[in-house]
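Notes, p. 3: input format for complexes.
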Amino acid sequence: MELITGTLEKVFEGTIWAEGPVWIPQSQIVRWSDIPNNRILEYSPESGQTREYATAVEFTNGRTLDRDGSVVQCSHGRRRVERDHDGVVSAIVDSFGGHRLNSPNDVVVAKDGTVWFTDPPYGILPGTVEGHEGEQEYGGCYVFRFDPATKELTPVVTDLVHPNGLAFSPDESVLYVADTAGPGRGSPFRVAAYPVGNGTCGAGRTFVELEDDKVSDGFRVDVEGRVWTSAGASVRVYAPDGGLLTAVDIPERVSNLCFGGPDGQDLYLTATTSLYRLRTSTRDTVRP
Ligand code: MG
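Output follows (288 residues plus magnesium ion):
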């Protein structure tokens, strides 16, 4: 069966650096970040229109749905993970051991409601246009698990240089995490895979290593456990064993993607200035 069944469509153009897409079933829209422009956009496939959802948003990046349908998103500027519940934005977590986080980048919510997110420094680096310059206060770039019930924040991955995109396998036995540090910062571009148990991660392994112009930033996992990832100016699909299943060139560098649309089988790509759509024969594990 073909995984990609339609041609590439550009549905919006006008961002500087598009990131953080999520499909919101309740309103049937794609919401995403235009990080340097410090705003959040929404595209409705029904109307074909894009609107500015919010401005002066403190440089939001990745986002996902919580179990109640509200949106959980990362804010570089506020250096926190936060919730947007019908437009009311509130903090979920912003510090680790009394130190501020770096600039949370991407986030997923597990079936038990715990919030797992990556914390590279891109929103606090010198000269950043994606946040505010600042210090790395706790001295690392970790992947964390936050338990809203106990308010406990636990580092679960501490051996990546710049952890970025992340996603669980369908049964949540594996956590995939991209490292976007690159060879210049001491790591190849790669996606690592960690066994998950008892709310933490075991020793990781390299799931796929990518070429220097094919950085994997953000990704999703479909119902069959295949990893759909940005890879430079392309999208790649990997089998659970790491084998490359298919790839599609995209005219611009892709940051991230999400499944959505009325039946969940449309893949939306945030790619630099534009939002693209690709029709697929599958969907992710988040209910449409
Ligand atoms: Mg990212």
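The two ends are 22 Å apart (CA to CA).
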